[in-house]
Fold these 2 entries.
Entry 1:
Amino acid sequence: MFGEGSASAEIFFVGEAPGETEDATGRPFVGRAGQKLDEMIHAMGVRRDECYIANVLKSRPLDNRTPLPAEVELCGPYLVEQILIIRPKVLVSLGGPASKLLLKVDTGITKLRGIWTEWVPPSESGAAPIPVMPTFHPAYLLRNYTPQTRREVWSDLKAVMQRISELKSATKK
Ligand code: URA
């Protein structure tokens, strides 16, 4: 399950791995977590088909377990190529595995979320670093739907929209 969205997307969401519904349909984020992601995207005032959505893993881990480091290593280069083709203005990493892979850290998502970092492309690509906003995975939000987690995710998403509007006004000048 590769990914989907606009080839000129400004926002690129990176999830963890396809779940059962994604595996069956060949589309990312179409199950329950996908509905939550759709709500998040809608709240940002953009359309899902204007964004790009992909996962770290391209196939479903057995029993929906967290991806193994060896699986992340195998699939990682595909994600790198996807990002280099789309060249979004901003990457939003959803949850721990995506954030750890893009930022090359081993820190938990609770510490990473809400803080801008950069994804540094392979030097041979010649591409510029891309800002990354790590936030909670929508499936985590479904399990922990508290005023605090909702406030935190909303604050992360607002920061993304703010950054995009700053980047746009900087290129107009
Ligand atoms: N969770 C993910 O991380 N990705 C999907 O595509 C669906 C659920």
Entry 2:
Amino acid sequence: MTTDPGRSAIAATAVRKAYGGHLVLDGIDLDIPAGSVFALLGPNGAGKTTLVQILSTLIRADRGELRVAGHDVVRDPGGVRAAIGVTGQFAAVDGFLTGEENLLLMARLNHLPRSARRRSAADLLERFELTDAARKPALTYSGGMRRRLDLAMTLVGRPRVIFLDEPTTGLDPRSRRTMWEIVRGLVNDEGVTVLLTTQYLEEADRLADRIAVLHRGKLVAEGPPEELKRQVGGGHVTLRFADPRDYDRAARTLDVVSRDDGACTLQIPGGGDVRSLRALLDRLDRASLAVDELRVHTPDLDDVFLALTGSPADPVGRVSPVDPVDPAAPATEQEPAR
Ligand code: ADP
């Protein structure tokens, strides 16, 4: 892969990492332009955190070239560390300190002049909607507040490249949306580059300029969200009928993706947008078909994996069945079917 170091915030070529007999990353290439959001999408155990740890110099790759903000991660780890911020699973928040104290501590660690520390903390608290809770210990914060504080602490050092490791896992929908707005704002207003890892297709879709899908140590797809969604296809609507005669009639009338005769349910293609739902309901009404229940399914990680690899994402919590390491084998031998 050819990369332009002037334009790339993150450039990786042929990165490989194994733990014992487990090949976790098997020839990863990345080229992430400065000032963009890049999402690394994959189920639990896919190797997302491992890649972030390698890029942020916490661990070494077995092979491969990696540059972050123009610095080589092996030859100039100090340069990389000075340019990056890491937020997420290894949260830096000290629960016994208040939000403000956490930020002041971070400002001191980043050698901010004394006069600038309080101003920086106050600005960040306000920007992340934490001013009211500034004097409370962080352990009293909700999950969303903690994540926001964690990200605010990362920003004290004014990083050019930010790694967000599963920034919204476990958050409620509202906190998740707030986090998305903050991240997008950072990129738009300050031109930072964000690499985020996520298990949520929706998150990658909302935030990222480009998405890469990690599967068994390899990137099986890479491109803008629109392209990925085109490959995955749209969502579907599930209709359940109480009356089997209505069910039969509907199955004959509608464009059906799949059916379950026992449960009297039909799946028909379509997303959750109001216009198409209204059109569907009108159509059912006109045909006097009484629907007992309607469910909208938007594509998720499982759909992505099914479409791209022909198999579902590996179940959460199970170790990904990666291929054993065989140093003699050329990387292409293990290429999964597209
Ligand atoms: P993800 O972030 O996508 O959930 P990880 O990068 O945490 O995935 O893990 C990828 C694989 O590497 C998993 O099979 C995990 O068990 C394994 N792994 C991660 N860290 C270590 C380690 N320090 N020692 C051994 N195996 C590890």
